[in-house]
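Usage

Read records sequentially. Each one opens with the input sequence:
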Amino acid sequence: MPKNPVNNDKINRRRLILIVDDEQVNRELLGMIASTEFDILYAANGIEALDIIRKNVYTLSLVILDLMMPEMDGFEVLKTMQSHEEMAHIPVIILTSDKDAEVQSLKLGAADFIIKPFHSPEVILARIERTIELSEDRFIIQTTERENLTGLLTKEYFFRYADQYDRFHPEDSMDAVALDIIHFHMINEMYGRNVGDEILIHFARFLREEIIGNKGLACRLDADRFLLYLPHIEEDYQDFLDRINRAFDVFVDINVRVRCGIYANADKELEIEKQFDRALHAVSTVKDRYDEFYALYDDEAHDKQVFSERLVNGIDEAIANKQFLVYFQPKYDVSGDTPKIISAEALVRWKHPEYGMISPGLFIPLFESNGLIHKLDFYIWEQVAEKMRRWKEEFGAEINVSVNVSRIDLHSPDLEDFLEYIVTINDVDPKRFYLEITESAYTEDGDRVTQKIFNLRDRGFQIEMDDFGTGYSSLNMLADVPVDVLKLDMKFIQHLRSSTKNEILISLIINAAKALGILTVAEGVEEKDQVDFLKGIGCNIIQGYYFSRPLPEQDFLELLKEN
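and closes with the structure output:
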């Protein structure tokens, strides 16, 4: 990028202009007209002019150039100036009496013309002033529309020019593309920021040649992400991505690769920013993939994204309006002849005003990934404690209820105090308020989680290890961590039932738990032969659709009365 020719004292500084003409009388006449407002340099031919321009390249505001001169004519001077980036920004006014020369001069970069012979000093001075003013304004715009390091468009100007292109070329099919340099932060860390900058500059140069040279637009969105707006590519985008990645082969010792998200045949009825939101969403879908490096956006992905965002953004309103409902799935003691409800698990359902009943399999993973699950969990725990109090007051019923505790909850500094508070104000025995914690939570941050669970047990709460076996944990874990109830998923049990040896292993797990004073619960039980098998190996507490699906509170209470 050339240095800014406009100094901070723009208002007070007399601009410097160069008058180039082989006829002395013309030079003196123009100098007399312009010297009232400007400082003047003179040259008698093209060679002399270029020498002066090179020496004053950052201070010259204008060149007034005759076309017909000996040694080097004005056309050659124009060509030379345009081919050098440092000179190209200086505006040129052509001196000519030849109308036919105007078109050629414009193509070579001339800004305006002064016709020989000179007639009106006021008009000449006005043309000089206006040309300098337009040039300086254009330079200011160019420097603000370009990102400093790469020289690519900034995001704001990129969107402006892309939108402008759509207005003037509505019939052109265009692709919105988002590019992301993979693990660029690690390149900066390992090789230094200077090397990282070299990579960005090299990549920008490639984009200017490959994309901008083919009627496309390119911008640097932020540190290592770029946006492209280019004519629709019919070919497989893998070829396009391969060409991009080959551009980095010059960095022999550094593995630089790019992932790509494409919103192909972009809908021009959408705002330009939303078109690129779709491209950015597409690239995010391959962010954690090691086998795919580009993705095409489609409407189904868009609908899922909008749906997910509405759910995430709606959690506070849903809690305030009590859209989250607590359902209860009973757990049955099958040790006797007649199965009997011994406890229940509290599960959440979302009765959305627009979408109806939403499966927890949709919204719980979203809340977990966005760090919002603690809001829902704390709300559900409060609701469960209040219901347990009411059951005790209205029906004299005291029943153990387990609630889910997520890994994020275990990092909350006020977890123990909050749980103790809600059971205390509702007069609920904490030994009846079971906390279900998945096995994976123990293994991911073992020491911290174990200490947290010891604290909860010290305050009277019972701990259930949920999904035992899905993380391939060993029986040693049961001896090392605080657990009161071991919960086995039926899918895990079914997998082990594939052979007699595996059935023996299940029996060993249950017997080992009993020996340690740990109850075992099997969940997800749906068939009678599963019940018979579990009873046969000593697992006496069963939860699943064979006995009951999760029920709304009222239905659960009716079932309790019958039982």
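Summary fields computed downstream for this record:
- Residues 1-12 have pLDDT under 50 and may be disordered.
- The longest strand covers residues 340-352.
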